[in-house]
Fold these 3 entries.
Entry 1:
Amino acid sequence: ILNVEQSPQSLHVQEGDSTNFTCSFPSSNFYALHWYRWETAKSPEALFVMTLNGDEKKKGRISATLNTKEGYSYLYIKGSQPEDSATYLCAFAMYSGGGADGLTFGKGTHLIIQP
Amino acid sequence: DSGVTQTPKHLITATGQRVTLRCSPRSGDLSVYWYQQSLDQGLQFLIQYYNGEERAKGNILERFSAQQFPDLHSELNLSSLELGDSALYFCASSVYGTDNSPLHFGNGTRLTVT
C-alpha cells in the first residue's frame, strides 16, 4: 500500500498572506506527482502534473516544486484570496512498465482564507 | 465545467441491491477512471479503461464491475450492496490514459445504501 501524506490537514490563512503545504510520497519508483484543487460542491480540478526531480510549475499565484529523491512536493499560494479556499489534493503515480497503474491520492489540505 | 458527465447525481438504495453509475468522458479523451471517496478517506482508485480495454485495476471489490463501451462512455456496476459502499463515486477521464496525464473529473455520484 502506497503512503501519500499531506500536511497540514487544514489551514486558516488571512487574506493577502502567502502559504504553503506539503505532500510526501514514496521516494522510489517515482513516475508522476499531481496537484488538484477541489472547491466545495465542485469536482477536483487539475493544477499541475510534475514528472522530473527539481520541476517547478506555476499557474498565476500558485506554484509547486518537486523533490523526487526525498519524496516531497510543496504547493505555494502567494497573496491568498478568498477564491483560493478549497481542498488541495496531491496524487502520486508509481512507475510501472505500462505507464498506467492508477494514482494514489492523499487526503488533502483544507485551506480556508479569512477576509 | 470539466466536460465529464456523470449520472445520476444522487442514488439511494437498500442493502443487497444493484446499481449502475454512468459516465461520459470529456470529448477527445480515450481513458476513463473510477474513484471512490468514503468518509474520511482519500480518493481510492478502482479501475481504469482505455479505448474500451481495461488498463489498470485498483482496490475494486469483486462485487463491483465496470466496462467502457465503443462510444467511450463507461458504466460502473455495484451489486450486493452493503452499508459500507455508501460513498461518492467519481469518474475521471484523460487523453492518453497514462499516469502523467491530468485527470478531468465529473461531479460525482453520491450513493447512499440504507
Entry 2:
Amino acid sequence: EVQLVESGGGLGQPGGSLKLSCAASGFTFSGSAMHWVRQASGKGLEWVGRIRTKANSYATTYAASVKGRFTISRDDSKNTAYLQMNSLKTEDTAMYYCTSDTAMVRWGQGTLVTVSS
Amino acid sequence: QSALTQPASVSGSPGQSITISCTGTSSDVGGYNYVSWYQQHPGKAPKLMIYEVSNRPSGVSIRFSGSKSGNTASLTISGLQAEDEADYYCSSYTTSSTHVFGTGTEVTVL
C-alpha cells in the first residue's frame, strides 16, 4: 500500500524552529521528487517547496514566502523527506502535507503546525 | 509568484456538466503542459484528478477531463454527482522552477 505519513508538527514559537518528517512506503521513493504543500485553516493550498532525486542532484526550490527560512532534505536510505522550518512566523501556521512526483500524485494526511507565543 | 485565478464557486444540478477555469500567465499555465487538478473534500488531503493538462490517473472517473488554451486551463466534470461536491485546485509548473496553485473553486451540487 502506498503511504506518505507526516510527523513533527505541533506548537512552535515565533522565531523558533520545527522539523517535519515524511515517511514513504509502497513506491520507489528514491525515484520520486518530493514536495511540501501547506494549507492554513479555511484557506487554499500553497506550494512550499520541492526536492528532486539523486539523479537530478537533489535540487531544491522554494516559494518566495519561505525561501531562506525553510530547507527541504531527504534520506533515500530511510525513505523519508524532511522540512526544516526556521525563523517561524505566525503566518506559517497551517496543515503541512508532503506529496510525491512532479504531478503531486500521492499525498499524506498532513501534520498541523501552529506558530504562536 | 501570484496564485492562479479560479472562480470562487461553481454549481450545477446532478447530471449536468460544469467547467472550472484556471487562468495564469505565459510564465506558468501558458508556458508548460504541467497543469494538474486536485479535488479536496473537507478535512481530507487533496487528490490528484488530472495531470499534464488532460491525463487522468488510474482510478479517476472518465467524467473528469482537462484542457488548456493559451494561459487558461479548464477542468470539466460531466454527469455531475453528489460525491463531486468538493473544493478543486489547479496547479502549474513555472519558469522559476517552482509550482503555483490556483485560488480554489468550491463546487456545489444543487
Entry 3:
Amino acid sequence: QVQLVQSGAEVKKPGASVKVSCKASGYTFTNYFMHWVRQAPGQGLEWMGLINPSNGNTVFAPKFQGRVTLTRDTSTSTFYLEVSRLRSEDTAVYFCARDLLYDGDYSYWYFDLWGRGTLVTVSS
Amino acid sequence: QSALTQPASVSGSPGQSITISCTGTSSDVGSHNLVSWYQQYPGQVPKVIIYEVDKRPSGVSNRFSGSKSGNRASLTISGLQADDEADYYCCSYAGGSSGVFGGGTKVTVL
C-alpha cells in the first residue's frame, strides 16, 4: 500500500526541539523528493523545504534556513523533520508530501501523496 | 519569497462556474509552468487537483481546469457542486529548488 505514515502529536515548550518522522512504503523511496509543509491552526499551507532521498541534499524556504533540519534513513525509508528553538508560532500541523523526481535532481513540483500530518503544539 | 496572492473567498451557486486567481511574480508563476492546485476539506489532507498549470491527475473531475497568463494562474470550477465547498491552494515552483503556496481561497456554494 502506497502511503506516508507520520509520527504522533507532540507538545513542546518554547525553546525546545521537535523531531517528526514520515515513513514511506509501497513505492521506490528514491524516486520522489520529500517535501515538508506546515499549516498553523486556521491558516494556509506553508512550504518549508525538501530533501532528495538519493543523496540527502536539502533546500529550505528562507524563513526556515538554520532552524530546520531534514534527514532521511534509507534503510527504513523514513524521513525526518527537526525544528529547533521552537516558539508559539510554530504550533501547526506538519505534513510530509512526495514529489516525483526525474533526471536525478529535478521534479514536477506537485505533491501527489501526503502524510496525515503531525500536530506540534508549542506552549509553556 | 512571498506567498502567492489568492482571494480569501469565492462563492457561486450550484451549476455556475467560478474562477480562483493566483498571482505571483516573474520569479515564480511567471517563469515556470510548475503551478499546482490543491483542494482541502476541513481537518483533511490536501489533494492535488491540477499540476503543471493545466494537467489533471487521474480520477479528478474534468470540471476542474487550470490556466496561466503571465504571473497569474487560475483555477476554474465549472458546474459548481455542493461538495466543491472547500479551501483551495495554489503552489508554484520559485526557482532554486524552492516553492511557495498561495494564501488559500475558501469556496462557498450558495
